[in-house]
Amino acid sequence: FDGRRGNPVVIPRSILDEIAAQPSNTACRRLTDRFPGRIKRFDAANDHFIRDIDSAEALAEFRRGT
Which pTM does this prediction carry? Predict the structure, then answer.
């Protein structure tokens, strides 16, 4: 959305072990940076793919549309 990366990220089973071996939660970002030619992007009509909803308050904000 608006040129920003979001989720979900679809990853082939063949590289799951490589992702699991990474020391942090940035493993997917490292792989997408390493293989930019294999990335398929699409435009989203809203910001739902880039919203970080990890608390009850964030969920309430999302539901209110703020």
Answer: 0.48
